[in-house]
Amino acid sequence: MLFAPLDSSYLYLGGDNSLETPNGYRGDGRENQSATYSNSSPSPPVTQHGKARKERTLLEEAQDVHKRKAEEDSKKSEAQKVAEEDEKILQAIASRRKLVSDLELAKGIEYAEAMKTSWRPPRYIRERTEEENDRIRQKFHIIVDGDDVPPPIPDFADMKIPDVLLKFFKKNGITQPTPIQLQGLPTAFSGRDMIGIAFTGSGKTLAFCLPLIMMAMEDEKKIPFVKGEGPVGVILCPSRELASQTFENVQQWTAALRDDGYPALNTLLCMGGISMADQSQAFLKGLHIVVATPGRLIDMLDKKRFTFDACKYLCMDEADRMVDLGFEEDVRKIMSFFKHQRQTLLFSATMPRKIQDFAQQSLTKPILVNVGRAGAANLDVLQVVEYVKQEAKMVYLLECLQKTPPPVIVFSDNKNEVDDIQEYLLLKGVEAVAIHGSKTQEERQYAIKSFKGGKKDVMVASGVASKGLDFAEIQHVINFTMPKEIEDYVHQIGRTGRSGKTGIATTFVNMNTPEQTLLDLKYLLMEAKQKVPPFLMSIEDPRAAQGASLTGCPVCGGLGHGISNCPKLEDNQRRQMAAHRGADVGGY
């Protein structure tokens, strides 16, 4: 925009090709043209009809330029503006400090190469062409990204796993590696940093526990551990229940090795709710493997009950939650205890782009192993969405329980509602237990044990049980309340349809369910080729009217909204504000 000097008699207002003098006169700017250009202006050109053609002034030309620019800006679609805003938010998130130790950050240490291991695949697998490897990946719907990706191995025996473990797997119905295992295990055995994304119930636990067990076994064979040494590696979990379950698996596999004559590996479950005095036996010898929740692990490291001086393996289960804002500072504190390079693995069923981007910055030459879209629902789950009025939910819940035999899990996002549902079911003669964050550790352990053992038919749970917990043979999952975040929905329905078996997930929605959440659900059902009820199909996406991209949210993976109105991002911002006010958001 052109502005006249302050002492000029003309002030440009813009937009209507007019000028205004200090005493209010409005004109088209040509009255004083002769004074401006004096007699040096050439005579107006004459057209073929003999009429003088109007001469355009520089001011008019400038006004036209601004007018055209304004028209172009107005034509700029709302979608483009939204896309630009989204990109700014995403860049702000990605600019967070890397997840590395304070020592590495202070000294600017960056590792150029991945850690070296002694593991090598058989010669015939090493000699496969990349085209052959890609065909195997395509067969199992595996997507990889990274440099020098290790070859996929569709047979456990070719991975050089001890025979005793192969027999143990076979005894427990595990005969062939799942897609995440056939690519994830060779990647982890090779010492590479890794981001693993796969449906719930796809065998991720084996994919990150077995490499640590073999690494610890190799170190113990070289020089036996003594008191005060170790651990070799740590597995970090966001909840006590998930940590307990992972620890049980590690104990089973290490016990199978010990019973066959291999050296005993000392393992420790480090989480709140259990007395460390009861686990003092673990500190009498060297420590090989720690499975932990963030809060208790930090407490033990601060008290120097053990150190990470020799720790070279870190795995975060449900890593999207571990790296997210709620636990990020805890994870940073844990990273500060590492003294050397380590192999880092991040696993989850939901790993939105913003977490992937952030993790890529923090890992060394990482490999992304993706089985299905991050945040997509398990295709082995039949999803049913029912419109149920709030006051009719309890009665309809009883009807839904008749659809399948037990065991059944009922989810609600409200602790009081969890207790109300359990009480109602008990009054109706249904054997039910409840689990949520306000229950004592003993109550939670009893609920899990009795439900797993078949003594109880129904477990009513809050979100604490939705991530990672593996209950065998779950026939039916009922979402009494639709979670606000679509990630939580994916985790909850993933409690059924595990290990290739089919399950049913029924979800209650009504007018209390946010429209944005319903839109996320609509797109998720369409992606999984599930039946979409008419009331969901009738919901229109406001982004479509704006011509915006419908690629989904890079923060939470929801397909029905963009980053600018992401409920997870809003929740994280609230958590940050609460943290600044001194709220406790640890995973103790």
Automatic annotation (TrEMBL):
Keywords: ATP-binding, Helicase, Hydrolase, Metal-binding, Nucleotide-binding, RNA-binding, Zinc, Zinc-finger
Record motif Q motif, residues: 154-182
Residues in Helicase ATP-binding domain copies: 185-369
Chain intervals with Polar residues compositional bias: 32-41
InterPro entries from the UniProt entry: DEAD/DEAH_box_helicase_dom (IPR011545), Helicase_ATP-bd (IPR014001), Helicase_C-like (IPR001650), P-loop_NTPase (IPR027417), RNA_helicase_DEAD_Q_motif (IPR014014)
One Pfam family linked to the record: Helicase_C
Gene Ontology cellular component terms for the protein in this record: cytoplasm
Biased composition (Basic and acidic residues): 55-83
Superkingdom, taxonomy of origin: Eukaryota
Domain DEAD-box RNA helicase Q: 154-182
Documented EC number(s): 3.6.4.13
Known catalytic reactions: ATP + H2O = ADP + phosphate + H(+)
Any GO molecular function: hydrolase activity
Region span, Disordered: 13-84
Residues covered by the Helicase C-terminal domain: 380-543
PANTHER family: ATP-DEPENDENT RNA HELICASE DBP3 (PTHR47958)
Full protein name: RNA helicase
Native species: Tulasnella calospora MUT 4182
